[in-house]
Amino acid sequence: MTPHDPLSADYEKAQVRATMWLDAKRAHDDGRIRATEVRASDFIGPRSESYLGLFIPRIIANKSCQVIGNIDAPHSWNYTKDVAHTLVTCAQDERSWGRAWHAPAIPRVPCARPLTTSHVS
After folding, report:
1. DSSP state, 113?
2. Distance between CA atoms of 61 and 46, rounded to whole angstroms?
3. pTM
4. CA-closest candidate to residue 45, choices 87, 106, 86
5. What confidence tens digit (pLDDT) does each residue in 59-114 have?
6. How many other C-beta atoms lie within 10 A of the C-beta of residue 63?
7. Which of 82, 10, 93 is nearest to 46 (CA)?
8. Helix, strand, coil share of the chain (percent; to 5)
9. Domain boundaries defined on the chain
10. Is the separation of the CB atoms in 118 and 71 below 8 Å?
11. What is the per-residue pLDDT across 3-33, written as a single tens digit (0 to 9) for each?
């Protein structure tokens, strides 16, 4: 997921999200509301409720777990505190309005590739 990817998806949940942003952006452009969007993938960090956050304690306890999807597929992870910082920054900065932003993803090195689930765990 990058800012350069098209705003399209082939599954219903993502289509609903895209429609919601386009509707909010249109209302912003028409002057009816002020809108910005912060995008993030799966969350990792304190009190994270993503599937990764749910099975890390099992791995630490040396217990088995089941993972949805391909654990070797590249994936972007967002640290919850980074997402919170991005949300606060966008809410307080006038330059953020009318635009979509991507929260920093792990790894934070711009040229690095997304990590697989097996690498993160």
Report:
1. P
2. 17
3. 0.70
4. 106
5. 788 888 777 777 777 777 888 899 999 999 999 999 999 999 999 887 654 445 55
6. 9
7. 82
8. 40, 10, 50
9. 35-120
10. yes
11. 677 787 778 888 899 999 999 999 999 999 9
Sign, CA dihedral 29-87-109-44, equals: negative
Question: Quick one: pLDDT at residue 53?
Answer: 63
**Cβ-based neighbours of 50, under 8 Å, separated by 6 or more:** 42, 43, 44
Single-letter amino acid code for the residue at 20: M
Residue 36 CB-half CA count within 13 A? 17
Helical residues (DSSP H) of the chain, grouped into ranges:
12-29, 51-60, 80-92, 117-120
Of 41, 38, 44, 4, nearest in space to 21 by CA: 38
55: pLDDT confidence band, cut at 50, 70 and 90? confident
* Backbone region of residue 45 per phi and psi (left: phi > 0; alpha: psi in -120 to 50; beta: other values): left
